[in-house]
Amino acid sequence: MTAPVKESPDAFRDEFVDATIACSPIPETDELSRETIPSHVANAELKRLFRHSSHYLAGILICLGLGFISFPIFTRVFSVSDYGTIELVAKVLLLLTALSKMGLQQSALRFYDGRLFSSDQSAAQRYYSTMFYGMTLTATSVMIVFWLALGFAPKSLIDRSLAALLFLISSLILVRALTSLLWVFLRVQEKTKLYSVFTVTTKVATLTAICLFIPWLGRSVHTYYSGTIAVEVGVVIILSAILLRGRLVGLQCFDMTLFRAGLAFGLPLIFYELAGITLDAGDRVLVRHYLGADALGYYSVAYGMSDYVNNLLIVPINLALAPIYMRLWTTEGQESTSDFLSRGLDLFFMISAGILAIVITTATTR
Questions:
Q1: Neighbours of 263 (CB within 10 A)
Q2: For helices 171-188 and 192-217, what crossing angle results, to 10°?
């Protein structure tokens, strides 16, 4: 007897269906094939999910380690009030960036079709060009509106020093909107290792730039964001150059129909994203208003530490999950996608329950 040969999921599926039809053409066999094939696909995709999640987790752990190293340095370099202002501005920037994206990063996940793009270069060019230039258009529009709002805002609402700082970081609205889209391109292509390498490199470069700028610009919030802007602009240029070199982006390939479809799909999702950000950032505004910048600094430190731990389990899975089930929906259909998500949810509950049990049993009470 010959040893079994490991075949691809598609080959297994075709041979299995052919065998069941030839050998047992009774209705029960069709039911068996419909149940077995999605299970086979789901198991293979779950292994892919764990592999990709591990790549994302490795990058997050390295960034978390860098954060623990930089945290005592920055708390000594910057005052408590400066640290609180940094966190407040970061949350405002996060809110503006979410608004500027108009949900197009979600549309980039939805409308990616790897099988079509591998055989049709023009379709790939329309997709990448429309998403890239569409994001540039929406983010630039929000950035200009924000400039006008800062210019006409009364001093009683925003003091001049904070307004100057917000004007400085407003360039990051466009930069971070494009960065989020370029990250999505890496995710849908399932280049998980490259994604992690870029995130870690960006973190290292940002910390280095801030430290180098401190002797030159002094210990201030402006110094922190000047280093951040320099690095993030460089990252966008590099990732954009990769797209341009692959001849995937061209203004003549912009598809207005696809752009409208992307906005129609993504705009409703803005409310979900903005609600989450407002819930997360609204407390910063209230703390600064009622308790002052020093209290905001202490609050931001404690909140940030707990948030890091919570994200260790959730973020890697979220990053890996969406591209996989979108691809499954396009290539395998609803049944395989549903089976994959059901099995994945069961495993997530099992892992979460295990972690919770470990925390409960190792926790100490006083």
A1: 16
A2: 160
Tell me if 205 sits within 8 A of 234, measured CB to CB: yes
Check residue 250 and report its DSSP letter.
-
What is the rounded CA–CA span in Å between residue 326 and residue 114?
10
Q: What is the pTM of this model?
A: 0.72
CA distance 74 to 69: 9
Domain extent at residue 138:
62-328
When pLDDT is cut at 50, 70 and 90, the band that residue 260 belongs to is very high
Query: Does residue 349 lie in a domain region?
Result: no
Model pLDDT, residue 281: 66
Dihedral angle of Cα 52, 53, 55, 57, to the nearest 10 degrees: 170
Closest to 106 in 3D by CA, of 267, 250, 311: 267
Domain count, the chain: 1
Residue 360 in domain: no
361, part of any domain:
no
Whether 293 and 85 have beta carbons less than 8 Å apart is answered as yes
Q: Output phi, psi for 44, to 5 deg.
A: -65, -40
pLDDT reported for residue 76: 80
Q: Which residues, 6+ apart, have CB-to-CB distance to 278 below 8 Å?
A: 95
Q: Per mean pLDDT, which range of 19-33, 108-122, 318-332 is the poorest? A: 19-33
Structure tokens of 347?
A: 């495993």
DSSP code at position 186: H
Flag whether 28 is in a domain: no
Tell me the C-alpha distance between 233 and 149, whole Å: 24
**Which tokens is 273 given?**
């994203």
How do residues 75-130 score in pLDDT, each as one tens digit? 787 877 787 788 788 888 888 898 899 989 889 988 888 888 888 888 989 999 99
